[in-house]
Amino acid sequence: MQMDYHTVKNLPKVELHCHLDGSVSLAALESIAAEEGNPFPTDIRKFAGMVRVQPDCGSLDDYLKCFQSILPYLQSKYALSLASFDLIRQAAEENVVYMEVRFSPISCCRRGLSCEEAVGSVLEGLKKGEKIYGVKSRALLCLMRGDTEENNRLVVETAHDMKSEGVAGIDLAGSESSFPPENYRSLVRLALDYGLKATIHAGECGSAENVETSVQMGASRIGHGIALQKDTAIRRRCAKANIILEMCPVSNFQTGASTDWGAYPFELFWKEHVPISISTDNRTVSNTNLTEEYMLLGQKYRFFDYNTMLQLNLTALEHAFIPEREKEELSAKIKGAYQTDIK
Q1: Contacts for 329 with CB less than 8 Å, ≥ 6 apart
Q2: Nearest to residue 141, comparing CAs of 130, 128, 152?
Q3: Which bin fits 203, alpha (ψ -120 to 50), beta or left (φ > 0)?
Q4: Is residue 117 annotated as part of the catalytic site, yes or no?
Q5: What single string gives the DSSP state of each residue in 197-246?
Q6: Is residue 224 pLDDT above 60, yes or no?
Q7: Full-prediction pTM beyond 0.90?
Q8: What is the domain count for the chain?
Q9: What's the whole-number average pLDDT of the chain?
Q10: Alpha-carbon torsion angle 266, 271, 274, 279, nearest 10
């Protein structure tokens, strides 16, 4: 089915997997640099090349290098509040009605902010964005692979302390190949004991076993999960347990998680009823948005249509880390729009 870009853009959408630091627009970064007297190390065109993934990128580790150029501009309350507000603005432009924004607060504490101050600043920007643009959101705090036990524990404690202010859960992010999820079992357990929800990046670097380990650790969502295509038994167990995969098609090819559309597992997961959601991962780094992600799937799969898109968004909403009452309100809004706008 030929999908119309304008229609896709204006239909309501849910985004579960979006990194704040990878999604700050260049315009917002320029504003932060000007306000704080911290100019870019080069002109804007070359800087854009530093923060956007290059065509020859073929691994997650190479992909993650882009963040090294962004993080120096996310080290103040002003910067973090503006960055999160800017992300909600971007989401509103394509009618994202709910999104979860994840980030590593420790990575934003290199110039004196406390973990609590970093999180509070992001929450301030998200709340301002909801007030002005009407986009509901929650924050997910990332534990970072390779960071110290002390720092990651502080993130869990901060998530617990600020749960009532808009922190919905935790994530485990970073180099999966170097730091398997098992290393962080006790920290995830602590988060779950605190009543937080957990999603874990797993199966992005070829290991289906990492996905299963993450689920056994208590993750109810998996970031990417591409490697599940390699193991039918694990895939079926995840489907039976209603574990959703937060798929990010553009990013999956940029990181080398997939290299061939003929082998990309979206259709396999869809046909086997593995829960799926579609997200951008990093809007700026990947140079994408949610509308383009859906348009790409529509171009690659004949069966993909507006009803497929509706089901993906309802599935995402089902697995969102928000109360059931809020899910019901958003579900009615989404269903109503699809019934009206695609006739």
Answers
A1: none
A2: 152
A3: left
A4: no
A5: EEEEEESSSS-HHHHHHHHHHT-SEEEE-GGGGG-HHHHHHHHHTTPEEE
A6: yes
A7: yes
A8: 1
A9: 95
A10: 30
In this structure, what token pair is assigned to residue 177?
Answer: 């190949």
From 249, 258, 269, select the one nearest 315 (Cα to Cα).
269
Residue 44: CA count within 13 A, CB half-sphere: 9
Of the candidates 94, 204, 246, 293, the residue annotated as catalytic is 204
Domain that holds residue 319: 5-341
Per-residue confidence band for 30, with pLDDT thresholds at 50, 70 and 90? very high
What integer pLDDT is reported at residue 240 of this predicted model? Answer: 96
Contact 67, 178 (CB under 8 A): no
Residue 214 to residue 198: CA distance in whole angstroms? 9
Question: Nearest Cα to 284, choosing from 131, 135, 69?
Answer: 69
Tell me: pLDDT of 135 over 60.
yes
Place of tokens 């396999």: 268
Cβ 200 vs Cβ 172: under 8 Å: yes
Tokens 């509040």 belong to 81
What is the rounded CA–CA span in Å between residue 265 and residue 308?
Answer: 16
CB 84 within 8 A of CB 22: no
CATH number, residue 63? 3.20.20.140
3-class SS of residue 289: coil
- Quote the Cα angle for 88-128-317, to 5°: 50
3-state class (DSSP) for residue 60: helix
**Amino acid, res. 225:** G
Q: Which of 316, 272, 278 is nearest to 297 (CA)?
A: 278
Q: Is the dihedral of CA 204, 210, 212, 214 positive or negative?
A: negative
Strand order in the sheet with 13-19: 13-19, 96-103, 136-144, 167-173, 197-202, 221-224, 244-247, 276-278
> CA 96 to CA 151: how far, in whole Å?
32
246's CB contacts (< 8 A; 6+ apart) are 16, 17, 199, 221, 222, 223, 224, 225, 277, 279
